Amino acid sequence: MKLILLGPPGAGKGTQAQKLVADFGYAQLSTGDMLRAAIAAGSEMGQKVKGIMDRGDLVSDDIVVGIISERIDAPDCAKGFILDGFPRNGAQAEALDKMLDEKGMKLDVVISLEVVEKDLFARIEQRAKETVGGPRADDNVKALKKRLEIYHEQTAPLIKYYGDQGVLKTVDGMAQIDAVSAQIAKILAEV
Ligand code: AMP
């Protein structure tokens, strides 16, 4: 199973991806987590992206496309993988299509988590409080506003992109975590 979880920051993509890892053994490919790991490791790439991420901007397509392309060949992706936070714009979506095609792979489904945007500020505030080791540098009102702006401009058009490809499904991301997981499990059982 190869799927994308689509939705604005705070929609619950990471939480749902982790549940899918636990329940189905798919690999969670979160570009945000991978970039934060690169920053924590102090790598050259990490140093390059830190400032960009902290203010809520997108890092360059080349970087994230490269990371994903390498990562999906790893053995833990054999059962399937969940793309969480990638693609985030049209160029990345097209690069993903091309990459999967070249690897002889096919996307099974794109699940869009629909949320009420004004509630995302409270969710992110809560996440900032609960994050072990301190809040993410971009979990604050200013960066979240920027991330939402970018989501609308660049990521939301992917809903139509995947709708046109006939692979889009939507779930109510405002429901309780387990109820969202149940909606997702139902979709996966049907694809
Ligand atoms: P996330 O953990 O998905 O909220 O991502 C945190 C930050 O990492 C984003 O605000 C971007 O700066 C960067 N990032 C993560 N994924 C991508 C992506 N696919 N394209 C560009 N930047 C990304």
From TrEMBL:
Q: Does the keyword Transmembrane helix apply?
A: no
Q: Which SUPFAM superfamilies does the annotation name?
A: P-loop containing nucleoside triphosphate hydrolases
Chief subcellular location: cytoplasm
The record's keywords, sorted A to Z, are: ATP-binding, Cytoplasm, Kinase, Nucleotide biosynthesis, Nucleotide-binding, Transferase
Swiss-Prot/TrEMBL GO biological process terms: AMP salvage
Enzyme Commission (EC) number: 2.7.4.3
InterPro entries, alphabetized: Adenylat/UMP-CMP_kin, Adenylat_kinase_CS, P-loop_NTPase
Q: Domain of life here?
A: Bacteria
Its Gene Ontology cellular component terms are:
cytoplasm
The broad enzyme category this protein falls into is transferase
Kindly state which reaction or reactions the protein catalyses.
AMP + ATP = 2 ADP
Q: Which GO terms describe its molecular function?
A: AMP kinase activity; ATP binding
Q: Looking at the record, which segments are called NMP?
A: 30-59
User: Which pathway does the database say it acts in?
Assistant: Purine metabolism; AMP biosynthesis via salvage pathway; AMP from ADP: step 1/1
Assembly: Monomer.
The UniProt family comment states: Belongs to the adenylate kinase family.
What PANTHER family does the database record attribute to this sequence?
NUCLEOTIDE KINASE
What name does the UniProt record give this protein?
A: Adenylate kinase
Question: Where does this protein come from, organism-wise?
Answer: OCS116 cluster bacterium
- Lineage, broadest ranks: Bacteria, Pseudomonadati, Pseudomonadota, Alphaproteobacteria, OCS116 cluster
